[in-house]
Amino acid sequence: MHTAMKYTVLAAIPLLYSLTPISGKSAIKTLNGDDTDGMEIRSVQVEGFETEPWTAVVSPGDPEAIPAVVDAQGTPMQGEKWNSPEVGLKGTTAAKCRPQNLAYDETNNKCLGLRFKFIYPGNNVVALIPPASRKIYRTLDELDHNNKPKVQEIPGLKLPGKVKAVSVWVLGRGNDYTLEAWVQDWRGTTHVLKMGSVNFVGWRPLTAKVPVGVPQDIDTYPQTKNLVLTKLVLRSKPTANTEKVVIFFDAVKVLTDMYDVHFDGADVDFDDQDKKEKAEAKEYAKNLKKYSEGGK
Questions:
Q1: Prior bond of 60 cis (ω within 30°)
Q2: How far apart are CA 231 and CA 223, in angstroms?
């Protein structure tokens, strides 16, 4: 299911990120040199949690499937369970689930709610995975048994442009957990971005910078190689207890450089495969131009 991306100008975003001058230009040489368009920084919302819930996976799993509440006869009662996460979209048009900072966005009525409880303290982890409908397909530099390039299917969100930072709004209730954003680069390597503690009460944006060493482009056209957000991970601290955890998420955003190289002759195709790749690059460039000009 398609989820429309939204953008804001740099001055309006909640991301706490210090920009440093970009030294050097694009590795691709064109007839025209780069000007200030070579650094088109935007804040783009890639997920608003309005249409589909994500999937929650816990580790360790549910070894005994013991309900947290049992009556005098030992019969499971209705209610919360250990190691059995519940996740879904929360909020309606009348009772909106969103931080006040996003109240200007009238289309943002819902958020992602998560509730879970572990049996024992320790290294407990809950991973939130994007819905199955949000998949990315990548051609790998490997051959399958038919001597054809392997295609990898990745459940996740494609992050536009060359990402500088990732943020998400969190509604915490004082649980001693930390949040991570897992992103995969075009080479298949996963990078864990530490977003910080969720041990607070109320809405708060958490942000993680993307290290400069994470590969997001190449030296040939099309140049940009998008990162993919594969999961959000909640990890308990050693001091965390086994009390029930209730937490909400909203507005996954990226601070990103939307610039990409364009040149005369980019529409000349070599074969059908080249034509397909060029069509994808053209669609990507079209979206970049739309975001840069304030479209949705």
A1: yes
A2: 25
Q: Hey, how many other C-beta atoms are within 10 angstroms of the C-beta on 6? A: 17
pLDDT in tens, 212-234: 999 888 777 767 888 999 999 99
Q: Are 100 and 36 in contact (CB under 8 A)?
A: no
Torsion-angle region of 143 (φ positive above 0: left; ψ -120 to 50: alpha; else: beta):
beta
Residue type, 286: K
List the beta strands (DSSP E) in 174-286. Answer: 177-184, 190-197, 201-209, 227-236, 245-257
| Residue 104 β-bridge partners | none
Q: Which pLDDT score, from 0 to 100, does residue 262 have?
A: 65
Place of tokens 């931080």: 99
275: tokens are 């034509």
The terminus-to-terminus CA distance of the chain in angstroms comes to 16
pLDDT for 32-45, tens place per residue?
A: 555 555 667 888 89
Say if residue 250 is exposed, middle or buried (CB neighbours under 10 Å; 0-12, 13-18, 19+).
buried
**CA distances to 109, 179, 207, 260, 267 from 127, in Å:** 24, 10, 18, 33, 42
Q: Strand, coil or helix: what is 10?
A: helix
Q: Rounded to the nearest 5°, which phi and psi values hold at 247? A: -150, 155
Q: Give this prediction's pTM.
A: 0.77
* Four-residue CA torsion sign, 289, 290, 292, 293: positive
